[in-house]
């Protein structure tokens, strides 16, 4: 889906910020969103993600900085002159127009008379070919959202901005639409910038995620990298359960050795976002599904070289795909462990003395001082 006016290029934000009176919603931000990527701005309510999106759209004037689309500086262009379109949570379809005319609207406004082929292509793209003559109220929420996407894409924008577009849908439909939007983005190949507070949504859909907190991007990366190698406690906790354990460095090399809860743990130095000099304090984290549980009586069978901490199970719950344990340990209270494919009979019960063990390579280290802020 190309257009002679679509020159392509990255979205480049340089020193862009937004203040309202004395309040800074977005601190000066440098961000490059590669052409053709599915990019997510992820963060809790009020972190500045919508404001950032609106500055790309031209709906909000930045206090400082510039917005480039490819080589073009669009900072002073009004929204309708930018090769950008936005899909909002409220689909904002025209209730009196049928689906065909809702999608055709942008073309007709530009004076284009022959719209049948283009609208037909869009209806096919969003798989609503059989709904052309329906009115919006005859469609489900997910279908209406797909019409909103088709309507936004028909003018061949260079970038599609999506502001919590799935926020009004129930969970099951949301999950379906996440895959659907990803498919559409792959098919049209243009840049999608998606704002969401839902970490699972961002991880499912995006190639690159920018995690925002307090008007700043705390970390930028591929979903798996952010999850497995978070650099701040905020990112670690926002993306999942992190099992943070207070630790002190005893030795540094390719691996860092720390003491924690009376025992020793190892982690790769390049997964440490903290001061790794001996005596340095850090928080060591491990994702729950990376941990294996062994009954204390079977501890002798654990392979050498694995990190291990002792503990006692305080809660066991079965949640379909996995068995989740809560374990109290000298290393930390309420450590969480998720194990899959555990037969009912071999689940460990509360009160059991256990050893938690895992591959040191999965461990990450965070700055303990920063987490106190
Ligand atoms: P949400 O998911 O709730 O929309 P968000 O991360 O998208 O949150 P923004 O909408 O970007 O956050 O808002 C960032 C901060 O800026 C918030 O604290 C908000 O109250 C404030 N803010 C946004 N617009 C204005 C405005 N016009 N005047 C004053 N403050 C504003």
Automatic annotation (TrEMBL):
Keywords, A to Z, come to: ATP-binding, Cell membrane, Membrane, Nucleotide-binding, Translocase, Transport
Keyword Membrane among record annotations? yes
One Pfam short name: ABC_tran
Q: Which family does it belong to?
A: Belongs to the ABC transporter superfamily. Spermidine/putrescine importer (TC 3.A.1.11.1) family.
Q: Which GO terms describe its molecular function?
A: ATP binding
Q: What does this protein do?
A: Part of the ABC transporter complex PotABCD involved in spermidine/putrescine import. Responsible for energy coupling to the transport system.
* ABC transporter domain ranges (all copies): 11-239
Q: What is its EC number?
A: 7.6.2.11
Q: Which InterPro entries match?
A: AAA+_ATPase, ABC_SmlMolc_Importer, ABC_transporter-like_ATP-bd, ABC_transporter-like_CS, Mo/tungstate-bd_C_term_dom, P-loop_NTPase, PotA-like, PotA_ATP-bd
What gene does the UniProt entry assign to this protein? potA
Catalyzed reactions per annotation: ATP + H2O + polyamine-[polyamine-binding protein]Side 1 = ADP + phosphate + polyamineSide 2 + [polyamine-binding protein]Side 1
Subunit structure, interactors included = The complex is composed of two ATP-binding proteins (PotA), two transmembrane proteins (PotB and PotC) and a solute-binding protein (PotD).
Give the signal peptide range.
none
Its protein name is Spermidine/putrescine import ATP-binding protein PotA
Enzyme superclass (EC): translocase
* Organism for this UniProt entry: Streptomyces lavendulocolor
């Amino acid at each position: 889906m190309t257009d002679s006016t679509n020159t392509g290029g990255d979205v480049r934000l340089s020193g862009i910020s937004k203040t309202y009176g004395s309040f800074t919603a977005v601190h000066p931000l440098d961000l490059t969103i590669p052409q053709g990527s599915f990019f997510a701005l992820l963060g809790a309510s009020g972190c500045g993600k919508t404001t950032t999106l609106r500055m790309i759209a031209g709906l909000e004037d930045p206090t400082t900085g510039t917005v480039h689309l490819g080589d073009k500086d669009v900072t002073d262009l009004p929204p309708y002159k930018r090769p950008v379109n936005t899909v909002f949570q409220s689909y904002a379809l025209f209730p009196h127009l049928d689906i065909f005319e809702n999608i055709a609207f942008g073309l007709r406004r530009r004076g284009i008379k022959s719209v049948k082929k283009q609208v037909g292509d869009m209806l096919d793209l969003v798989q609503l070919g059989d709904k052309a003559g329906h009115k919006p109220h005859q469609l489900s929420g997910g279908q209406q959202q797909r019409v909103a996407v088709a309507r936004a894409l028909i003018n061949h924008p260079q970038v599609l901005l999506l502001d919590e577009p799935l926020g009004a849908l129930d969970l099951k439909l949301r999950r379906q639409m996440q895959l659907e939007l990803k498919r559409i983005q792959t098919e049209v190949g243009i840049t999608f910038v998606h704002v969401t507070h839902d970490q699972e949504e961002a991880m499912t859909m995006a190639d690159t995620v920018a995690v925002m907190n307090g008007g700043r991007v705390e970390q930028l990366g591929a979903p798996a990298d952010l999850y497995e190698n978070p650099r701040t406690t905020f990112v670690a906790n926002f993306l999942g359960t992190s099992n943070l354990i207070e630790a002190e460095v005893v030795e540094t090399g390719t691996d860092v050795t720390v003491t924690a809860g009376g025992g020793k743990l190892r982690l790769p130095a390049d997964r440490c976002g903290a001061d790794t000099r001996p005596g340095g304090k850090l928080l060591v984290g491990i994702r729950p599904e990376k941990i294996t549980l062994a009954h204390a009586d079977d501890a002798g069978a654990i392979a050498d070289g694995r990190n291990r901490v002792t503990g006692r199970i305080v809660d066991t719950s079965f949640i379909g795909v996995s068995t989740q344990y809560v374990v109290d340990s000298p290393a930390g209270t309420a450590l969480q462990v998720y194990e899959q494919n555990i037969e009912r009979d071999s689940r460990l019960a509360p009160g059991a003395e256990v050893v938690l063990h895992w591959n040191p390579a999965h461990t990450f280290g965070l700055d303990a001082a920063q987490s106190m802020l």
